């Protein structure tokens, strides 16, 4: 059986303490759920499940934020939901679980979504809460025995990748500038308009004039310059990474609707794309962020495709060394990678990023009349998901 994507939407991302900071994450995610139902015209009761990625599942994102988003939406109480944590790949995994449910024949309409308010539930909230309350560490005695003297760190993993692939600070800074320039060009040309769901501006602790909408990714630096980026302080003495060559902390939500062929016919839906391949791979948890490289190579081989067959790639810009190392290892065309910029310019709202990247990828394929698109992203713990879609024009 085949799985099809019939709708994909995302909010424009908000900066930390920015234009989305007043939204409760469940309510923000509910906006996306409602819009997916509205735009497809599907009966809300026909949704079999909602799978939602979220990394920091504590505080306002605790107690199954996916179910709370459903209860905040127009979906009926009969629609179940569950929250998924595969770190940065959480909502990409939600998409893959949704596709698997449809391909297995057990469900016909599944929404795969993601949400993260990094303003209201800061990164590392779960581990910090555990530390303050004496609840121990996720690093168990047996894990420590297997990796003696190691503290898993994405930042250190990014530095290790830069060293392994010979990536200089100049190369990282140049890539960061290109991310902003591509995002600026896309925003000014209106290439994000079809994928962005306008939502009301809500700043934490502020009253906002009625009718003001958030429609432009807040992290894009329209005046970015190489000189400005190069002048940002190194995050580690002797290292090559700065805050300018890393993804931005952000708030946001995104979602896609995945359906079966039966649902296409029943509800008269037009598919945007067909799921062509899905896989996930584990890799070295110390280097951690290199996993997209072997995962992509393996996925292309399994799908019977080459990098040259793919018309557009989305590789999450957690840190600039990740896409640059990926390009070097795969031989992919840089002109097809993150064509509208990436998380360095647009922000990385953790659990929402997987669905966000897929939303952008689908719209890029539609705009460019491309056939195949590939999405991958590095994930905490040393993992990577790969999803290949075939656009249907």
From TrEMBL:
Keywords: Acyltransferase, Transferase. Residues 269-390 form the Thiolase C-terminal domain. GO terms for molecular function: acetyl-CoA C-acyltransferase activity. Signal peptide: none annotated. The active site is at 88 (acyl-thioester intermediate), 348 (proton acceptor), 378 (proton acceptor). This is Acetyl-CoA C-acetyltransferase. The keyword Transferase applies. It comes from Ramlibacter algicola. Belongs to the thiolase-like superfamily. Thiolase family. The keyword Acyltransferase applies. Residues 4-261 form the Thiolase N-terminal domain.
């Amino acid at each position: 059986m085949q799985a099809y994507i019939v709708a994909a939407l995302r909010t424009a991302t908000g900066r930390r303490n920015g234009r989305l900071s007043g939204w409760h994450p469940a309510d923000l995610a509910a906006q996306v759920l409602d819009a997916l139902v509205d735009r497809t015209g599907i009966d809300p009761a026909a949704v079999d499940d909602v799978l939602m990625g979220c990394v920091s599942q504590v505080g306002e994102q605790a107690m199954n934020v996916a179910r709370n988003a459903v209860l905040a939406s127009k979906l009926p109480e009969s629609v179940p939901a569950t929250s998924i944590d595969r770190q940065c790949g959480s909502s990409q995994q939600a998409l893959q679980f949704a596709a698997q449910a449809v391909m297995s024949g057990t469900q016909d309409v599944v929404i795969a979504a993601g949400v993260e308010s990094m303003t209201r539930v800061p990164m590392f909230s779960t581990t910090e809460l555990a530390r303050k309350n004496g609840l121990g560490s996720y690093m168990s005695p047996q894990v420590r025995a297997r990796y003696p003297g190691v503290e898993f760190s994405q930042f250190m993993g990014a530095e290790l990748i830069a060293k392994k692939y010979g990536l200089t600070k100049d190369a990282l800074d140049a890539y960061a500038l290109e991310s902003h320039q591509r995002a600026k060009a896309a925003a000014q040309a209106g290439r994000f308009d079809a994928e962005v769901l306008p939502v009301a501006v809500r700043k934490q602790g502020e009253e906002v004039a009625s009718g003001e909408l958030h429609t432009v990714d807040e992290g894009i630096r329209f005046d970015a310059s190489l000189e400005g980026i190069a002048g940002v302080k190194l995050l580690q003495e002797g290292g090559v990474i700065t805050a300018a060559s890393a993804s931005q902390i952000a708030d946001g939500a995104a979602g896609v609707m995945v359906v079966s062929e039966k649902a296409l016919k029943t509800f008269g839906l037009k598919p945007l794309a067909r799921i062509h391949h899905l896989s996930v791979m584990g890799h070295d948890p110390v280097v951690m962020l290199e996993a997209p490289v072997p995962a992509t190579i393996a996925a292309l081989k399994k799908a019977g495709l080459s990098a040259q067959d793919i018309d557009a790639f989305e590789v999450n810009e957690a840190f600039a060394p990740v896409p640059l190392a990926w390009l070097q290892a795969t031989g992919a065309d840089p002109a097809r990678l993150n064509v509208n910029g990436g998380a360095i310019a647009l922000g990385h709202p953790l659990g929402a990023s997987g669905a966000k990247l897929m939303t952008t990828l689908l719209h890029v394929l539609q705009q460019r009349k491309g056939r195949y698109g590939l999405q991958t992203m590095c994930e905490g713990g040393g993992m990577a998901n790969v999803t290949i879609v075939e656009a249907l024009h």
